[in-house]
Amino acid sequence: MTEPRMRMRQKGQQFDTRDLEAYLIAFGDDRNPLPETVRVLDEIITDFIIETCHEAALCASYSRRAKIKVDDFKFILRKDPVKLGRVTELLNKEKEIKSQRKVFAVDDEQIGKDETHKEETKKGKRKEERKEERPAKKAKSTRE
């Protein structure tokens, strides 16, 4: 698919060479892939991302929206169950991580306030105990 508006491509690679080499090695290429292979993989990935984004933008425009949503990407990938499954899996994992962070999210200021409040209540209890002890001593001395 061609882009709606042709733009000048940036010269050079878009992705880190080490990352691309790791992908190639993971899929069975040699430990030292050829630079041409890395360059071609970079072009393929870049073209795929650009085309997918343009298709998602087109889908959003059909829905009369100016902004692209995640559902637009899901709609574009609906015919490729492997990619759609991976996207769904990653989105579910992201939701799970966010919910886990909320469970452990504790406001640092609140922790500090809780600690000072505990210390103040301990000090306050000690002062009250001292006040209660003092009148009792005075009462004994006045009675004698």
UniProtKB/TrEMBL annotation:
Gene Ontology molecular function: protein heterodimerization activity; translation initiation factor activity
Pfam families to which the protein is assigned, alphabetical: TFIID-18kDa
Family classification: Belongs to the TAF13 family.
Lineage: superkingdom: Eukaryota
Location in or out of the cell: Nucleus
Record's keyword annotation contains Nucleotide-binding: no
Biological process according to GO: RNA polymerase II preinitiation complex assembly
Region (Disordered): 108-144
InterPro entries: Histone-fold, TFIID_TAF13
Protein name, per record: Transcription initiation factor TFIID subunit 13
Keywords, sorted A to Z: Initiation factor, Nucleus, Protein biosynthesis, Transcription, Transcription regulation
Biased composition regions of type Basic and acidic residues, renumbered to the chain: 110-144
Cellular component annotations (GO), alphabetically ordered: transcription factor TFIID complex
